[in-house]
Write the structure tokens for this entry.
Amino acid sequence: MCIEHCTGQVEGVHSFYDGEVSRELGYFDPAISPASSSTSAASSSSSTPAASATPAKKLNLVNKARINVPIALHPPQFTAVAQELVRIAHERCASVPCLDEPNTCRINYYTNSGKIGWHYDRVPSLSKEEQRTVTDPVISMSFGNSAEFQYKQRMDDPEESVILESGDVIIFGGPARMIYHMVPRVIKNTTPKGLDLRQFGPGRFNVGYYYN
């Protein structure tokens, strides 16, 4: 599990699932009580008591939070939608590979002041050169407030811009898999009527599906 955080107004670490999530399942939930981490540190390194005495770091409030969810924990009906979207994208653009079930769902939450600068969605296990060979698609869904989405193929290219509204989907794969993109702003008070996100506060959710 991965959390990305910066400066802003919401908790950067939060679990969307009940129960303890452990390294045995292949990922780590930073929202677990610090006591469980201290206990494991003490038991695995009894000769270095200082390790278990280290206080847990308190996270700052942020304006963008991220959580990576293994597909095994994700509702299958949502995964089925992602697969169907990839199939449609492949029919419209053959350079986008038509693959089976993605292996990760990444959920980003932006407050109304949330934003992220230029980046590309890299694969952690690959080198910088290997990144550019990846073609497996990313399926990116937007919910809640609208947001401006900018993108370009190379950093020295002029950027293109589009407004993503709630329910919009962007798929980038094939030669466009590693496009540079950013979200410079969230547009307040644009959540559709009937979509109740009050328990999370005003803002935007981006739900992305990944194959690597």
